Amino acid sequence: MAARFHHHDLLRLFAEIARYSSFSTAASALNMTKGAISYQIKTLEADLGMALFQRTTRGVTLTGEGLKLLAICQTRYEEIETEIQALKGISSRSLTVGVSTYFAARWLSPRLMSFMQNHPDVQLRIQPMIEFSQAEMQEVDLAIRWGNGNWSDGTVTPFMHLRPYPVGNRAAADLVNELGIGPAISQLTLLRDRDDSSAWSDWLNAAKLPRQSRRDVLIVPDPNVRVQAVIDGQGIALMDGLIGDDLNAERLFRLSETVLPEYGYFLVQPHRTAPIGAVRAFSDWVQSQA
């Protein structure tokens, strides 16, 4: 008979630690010492015979085995929580959906009432997200994320292909009209959502323009702030059809007809999340609204 696993308490601790990007942060949040957390994880890794975390100079990240184990743990714990709620006679289903405040305000919020009316038993929580980091993704059951869909931290489903294009304020538009998009873009600051984003490089390739070796790139993770930065003349950004009101009011101007065909909004269900009814109900509903 195979030896039984006896460290179920460490599995629960592992699931909690996995929410954080460093053992120091986890120790502070869990009221433990960093040494105690490191020892417990090493004990669990030794018992399982696999590495769960990869140590880096910037903290820790889950290994492939760690991600698989987290998915198993979280699924089981969520099932237990659901059964406990049922034992207590609480029938409502909870669902946390992560979105940027930009997408929530410009697209999701005006439509939410229909979901609430059709699913009164679902307790819905909209969680604002900016970077969609591993830690942030641990807090949600489902995320709506902008990009090219090339992510490995969840099950990715194409949702709404709003293809982005470069926009600027009136001064930027005048410069493009005067010089053309190629020469003008070399004089304008490029606004990005994160430092490792490839969106501008992808767009330059699509536009058949030379790749830029730039120092004047401004990182603005929050898309609402990025829109305002463009309006204020701090640079140009890749935006999509959700800025229609700003275009109509001539606060923003489209600078090129070239778009990024692979980009848009995607539903991302974290690997740890079970495909519970509330997740499926929201996924079906939100795709019907696109």
Structure, described:
This protein has 290 residues and is of the alpha/beta class. It is built from 13 helices and 12 strands. The strands form 4 sheets. It has a 5-stranded mixed β-sheet with strand order 4-3-5-12-6. A 3-stranded antiparallel β-sheet has the order 10-7-11, with helices on both faces. Helix 10 links the parallel strand 8 and strand 9. Helix 1 crosses helix 3 and helix 2 packs across helix 3. It is globular, with a radius of gyration of 22 Å. The termini are far apart.
Unreliable spans are: none
- The number of E-state strands comes to 12
What is the alpha-carbon Rg in Å? Answer: 22 Å
Instruction: Estimate what percentage of residues fall within beta strands.
Output: 15-25%
Give the helix/strand class: alpha/beta
The residue fraction in helices comes out at 40-55%
Strand line-up across the major sheet: 4-3-5-12-6
Largest sheet: 5 strands, mixed
- Span from first to last CA? 53 Å
Instruction: Report the average pLDDT across residues.
Output: 86
Oligomeric state as shown: single chain
Shape: globular
Number of helices: 13
String of helices and strands: HHHEEHEHHEHEEEHHEHEHEHEEH
